[in-house]
Amino acid sequence: MEECGDTNITLREFGCEQSLLSRPDGSSSFMQGDTSVLAGVYGPAEVKVSKEIYDRATLEVVIQPKVGLSSVRERLQEQSVRETCEAALLASLHPRSSLTLVLQLLHDDGSLLSCYLNAACMALMDAGLPMSCLFCGVTCAVNAEGQIITDPSAAQEKESRALMTFAVESTEHRVIMSSTRGSFSVHELQQCIAVSQKASEKIFQFYRDSVRRRYSKIL
């Protein structure tokens, strides 16, 4: 939420809960500041013949807005989340089957796409689906003065001239998906990627702490 001209990257407070829904095979709620999302994973299950892929699972991502019907914005977000999940999931282990990820928006106060990505990863983990790596989402805003703000709020997004969201994988911190809007230079893009890779370390640490707390309660 703070400007990041230096290496001291500040993110809003995170919150996460897994297995809170009974019907999906895996579920999670994820909060970043006042932005909150609910995720449910269904499958592997039987797939329609028209959607069947012979050598891997078919992944469908559905984003449900808080009110009303899905728009073009949700379709673009669904595509970004699906591409990220497909890069991480070992879908070839479940050929000719169906995986469905449903994301429900509870409240949007900025950095929404990265919150969707983080909720999706925690729900996939909860479902026990095989993945080659974990992933997380980081959103960066560039304001009029050229300062980079990580995990911006809705107000900060509104005042920014560029907004970028990156999906970063956990093994080598590579960017596996990017979504950008606004005007920015190549140098600013590279800066935002570097900041996002550094911020991802904090998010992956939160994942580890969250899972550790959950299983220590069970034991």
TrEMBL record:
<protein>
    <recommendedName>
        <fullName>Exosome complex component RRP46</fullName>
    </recommendedName>
</protein>
<dbReference type="InterPro" id="IPR036345">
    <property type="entry name" value="ExoRNase_PH_dom2_sf"/>
</dbReference>
<dbReference type="GO" id="GO:0005730">
    <property type="term" value="C:nucleolus"/>
</dbReference>
<keyword id="KW-0597">Phosphoprotein</keyword>
<dbReference type="InterPro" id="IPR027408">
    <property type="entry name" value="PNPase/RNase_PH_dom_sf"/>
</dbReference>
<keyword id="KW-0271">Exosome</keyword>
<dbReference type="InterPro" id="IPR001247">
    <property type="entry name" value="ExoRNase_PH_dom1"/>
</dbReference>
<dbReference type="GO" id="GO:0016075">
    <property type="term" value="P:rRNA catabolic process"/>
</dbReference>
<dbReference type="GO" id="GO:0000176">
    <property type="term" value="C:nuclear exosome (RNase complex)"/>
</dbReference>
<dbReference type="Pfam" id="PF03725">
    <property type="entry name" value="RNase_PH_C"/>
</dbReference>
<keyword id="KW-0238">DNA-binding</keyword>
<dbReference type="GO" id="GO:0000177">
    <property type="term" value="C:cytoplasmic exosome (RNase complex)"/>
</dbReference>
<keyword id="KW-0539">Nucleus</keyword>
<dbReference type="GO" id="GO:0034475">
    <property type="term" value="P:U4 snRNA 3'-end processing"/>
</dbReference>
<dbReference type="GO" id="GO:0003677">
    <property type="term" value="F:DNA binding"/>
</dbReference>
<dbReference type="GO" id="GO:0006364">
    <property type="term" value="P:rRNA processing"/>
</dbReference>
<dbReference type="InterPro" id="IPR015847">
    <property type="entry name" value="ExoRNase_PH_dom2"/>
</dbReference>
<comment type="subunit">
    <text>Homodimer. Component of the RNA exosome core complex (Exo-9), composed of EXOSC1, EXOSC2, EXOSC3, EXOSC4, EXOSC5, EXOSC6, EXOSC7, EXOSC8 and EXOSC9; within the complex interacts with EXOSC3, EXOSC8, and EXOSC9. The catalytically inactive RNA exosome core complex (Exo-9) associates with the catalytic subunit EXOSC10/RRP6. Exo-9 may associate with DIS3 to form the nucleolar exosome complex, or DIS3L to form the cytoplasmic exosome complex.</text>
</comment>
<keyword id="KW-0698">rRNA processing</keyword>
<feature type="domain" description="Exoribonuclease phosphorolytic">
    <location>
        <begin position="11"/>
        <end position="130"/>
    </location>
</feature>
<dbReference type="GO" id="GO:0003723">
    <property type="term" value="F:RNA binding"/>
</dbReference>
<dbReference type="GO" id="GO:0071051">
    <property type="term" value="P:poly(A)-dependent snoRNA 3'-end processing"/>
</dbReference>
<dbReference type="GO" id="GO:0071028">
    <property type="term" value="P:nuclear mRNA surveillance"/>
</dbReference>
<dbReference type="Pfam" id="PF01138">
    <property type="entry name" value="RNase_PH"/>
</dbReference>
<dbReference type="InterPro" id="IPR050080">
    <property type="entry name" value="RNase_PH"/>
</dbReference>
<dbReference type="InterPro" id="IPR020568">
    <property type="entry name" value="Ribosomal_Su5_D2-typ_SF"/>
</dbReference>
<keyword id="KW-0963">Cytoplasm</keyword>
<comment type="similarity">
    <text>Belongs to the RNase PH family.</text>
</comment>
<feature type="domain" description="Exoribonuclease phosphorolytic">
    <location>
        <begin position="134"/>
        <end position="198"/>
    </location>
</feature>
